[in-house]
Write a structure and sequence with these properties.
Helix content: 25-40%
Bound molecules: adenosine-5'-diphosphate
GO cellular component, one term: membrane
Shape: globular
Order of helices and strands: EEEHEEHEHHHHEHEHEEH
Keywords: ATP-binding, Cell membrane, Membrane, Nucleotide-binding, Phosphonate transport, Translocase, Transport
GO molecular function: ABC-type phosphonate transporter activity; ATP binding; ATP hydrolysis activity
InterPro entries: AAA+_ATPase, ABC_transporter-like_ATP-bd, ABC_transporter-like_CS, ABC_transpr_PhnC, MetN_ABC_transporter-like, P-loop_NTPase
Number of helices: 9
Protein name: Phosphonate ABC transporter ATP-binding protein
Strand content: 25-35%
Number of strands: 10
Radius of gyration: 18 Å
């Protein structure tokens, strides 16, 4: 079953930069897909069009049978709870603890006073602890995020993205700031999240070898267009 589909998607920034032009590809439910390409290829723009952090200029993006460009404000909020996002620079709140950052993942849709004040239910907290345990952060739960290593910070980012039980994770260069060891840990967690939790993973990477190691499928992007769409093995032949 197709979970995500790009149909003739283009994105123009101002009048000069065409970041995406006529992009077409699809992602199946449960797939692990890497988007690869050099810096400036349009990977980040592509990813951000999915949950409408950026609006595409034309074309259609379908997620779970709904056209994301047609969603109203409330529907868009709901969509964002179903799509977790992970960033290169983690985007954590440094002065807060690990557990507070994870629970913060819920603020996105909790516009209630309880959400703003950080009052969470027992179940919500228990789930956050569980996720931190899965990610090997049980010793870090009450530490401030600015005391963590980069790899630990990214694992907090992953827990925060998972706290809403998303259907899909979008990861924008999740290992670009990490050393090889931490990168491996992060990629293995993402792979497990896909195969054990059944969450579809779409990840932007500029390291081709990493993409080939972990992905079911690779979408190669260059200058805003798709130049490869197929299994990792096919990429070797092409080169
Ligand atoms: P990648 O993630 O592959 O490095 P990006 O999607 O960040 O590529 O960028 C694609 C192109 O769009 C680049 O030429 C970049 O300079 C341009 N671009 C990205 N964001 C903006 C923006 N907010 N305003 C103008 N141009 C942008
Ligand atoms: P409350 O004060 O609202 O009861 P708690 O923070 O005491 O919230 O705990 C909520 C739930 O989170 C508990 O029922 C427990 O299952 C779990 N929990 C609390 N602290 C930890 C911890 N350090 N490690 C693992 N699970 C915990």
């Amino acid at each position: 079953r197709t979970l995500l589909e790009f149909k003739h998607v283009s994105k123009q920034y101002g009048s000069e930069t065409r970041a995406l032009s006529d992009v077409n590809f699809a992602v199946k439910e449960g797939e692990f897909v890497s988007i690869i390409g050099p810096s400036g290829a349009g990977k980040s723009t592509l990813l951000r069009c999915i949950n409408r952090m950026i609006d595409a200029s034309s074309g259609e993006i379908v997620f779970d049978n709904a056209s994301v460009l047609a969603l109203n404000k409330n529907e868009l909020k709901k969509l964002r709870t179903r799509i977790g996002m992970i960033f290169q620079h983690y985007n954590l709140v440094n002065r807060l603890s690990v557990i507070e950052n994870v629970l913060h993942g819920r603020l996105g849709y909790k516009s209630t006073l309880a959400g703003v004040l950080g009052l969470y239910t027992k179940e919500e907290k228990a789930q956050a602890y569980r996720l931190l345990q899965v990610l090997g952060l049980q010793e870090q739960v009450y530490k401030r995020c600015d005391q963590l290593s980069g790899g630990q910070k990214q694992r907090v980012g992953i827990a925060r993205a998972l706290v809403q039980d998303p259907k899909m994770l979008l990861c924008d260069e999740p290992i670009a700031s990490l050393d090889p060891n931490s990168s491996k840990v992060i990629m293995e967690h993402l792979r497990d999240i896909c195969s054990k939790m059944g969450i579809t993973v779409v990840v932007n990477l500029h390291q081709v070898d990493v993409a080939m190691n972990y992905s079911d499928r690779i979408v190669g992007v260059n200058k805003g267009t798709v130049v490869y769409d197929g299994p990792p093995a096919g990429l070797t032949k092409e080169k």
